[in-house]
Amino acid sequence: MARIRTIKPEFPQSESMGRVSREARLCFILVWTICDDSGRARASSRMLASLLYPYDEDAGKRIDGWLAELERENCIVRYEAEGNTYLEVRNWLNHQRIDKPSASKIPPFEEASRILANPREASCEEGKGREGKGRERKLATVFIPSNVTGLDLTAWADWIAYRQSLSKPLKEQSLPAAAAELAALGDRQAAAVRHSIASGYRGIFEPPARAQGSGTNGNRPAPPPMFLPDNTYNPEHQKYVEMYA
User: Fold this and answer.
1) Three-state SS across 7-76?
2) What's phi and psi for 25, nearest 5 deg?
3) Which residues are CB-neighbours of 222 under 8 A, at least 6 positions away?
């Protein structure tokens, strides 16, 4: 059941809101209207899209990306309980003042039930034309580092899945550095991941045509491997990126 909720005047100035997209900010506010008095709600992506965006056909493909942005900023947490998917708004009582709250019928969040991320269809990046419509997919659980901004979630998930397909999954301690390096590519992230996968690389590199001229003389040396034989991040690769970025 939808409820009347309030928005504090300082909400637009929140630093966490400044680190997410405009679409994610609106999604956060809309989620409040379907949360119970404990800040919990059912979190099926398809259901949320139909309830919160009944007139937006693309919402079903993009809402997972918006939720992932909010989860990265610890605005919400998604979890599973009794075979269902739920979300809980973090610090709920900082956002809403509830008089005579009703008891929640939704199981509370427990750390063991957390869903790290599941960008089931499209990411928070807006799809374009038919290409955007054709990007629906189910992906494995993906680690999203909380201190990395601007990460293309779909490209990152594709890269994680690719490394797993090689039986060379990234080690946990290497994930934040790898995600930060991908995010540093900005709008070139997806192209770099596609090129690296097609080339069979174990590290992420931009296509040669784009890489030429981005160094000081257009003839940069071959980059060192992104990961060492033990599958940990290679610091020499970071030095190379900083020198020729």
Assistant:
1) CCCCHHHCHHHHCCCHHHHHHHHHHHCCCCCCCEEECCHHHHHHHHCCCCCCHHHHHHHHHHHHHHCCCE
2) -60, -45
3) none
Residue type, 33: T
178-203 pLDDT, tens digit per residue, is: 888 898 998 889 888 888 888 888 88
H helix or E strand, kind and range, residue 235: helix 235-244
Given a contact cutoff of 8 angstroms between Cβ atoms, the answer to whether 52 and 31 are in contact is: yes
Closest CA to 145 of 121, 119, 115, 178: 178
Can you tell me the distance from the alpha carbon of 30 to that of 220, in angstroms, rounded to the nearest whole number? Answer: 49
CA atoms of 238 and 225, how far apart (whole Å):
10
The domain defined by 1-124 folds into Arc Repressor Mutant, subunit A (1.10.10)
Which one-letter amino acid corresponds to residue 212?
Answer: Q
Model confidence pTM above 0.85: no
* Rounded Cα–Cα distance for residues 45 and 209 (Å): 38
Rounded CA-CA distance 136/60 in Å is 10
Identify the residue whose tokens are 């605005």: 75
Q: What residue spans of 40-174 are helical by DSSP H? A: 45-52, 59-72, 92-95, 129-133, 153-165
**Three-state SS annotation for 3-20:** CCCCCCCCHHHCHHHHCC
Do 146 and 72 form a contact (C-beta atoms < 8 A)? yes
pLDDT at 113 over 80: no
DSSP code, position 217: S
Domain extents for the chain?
Answer: 1-124, 145-245
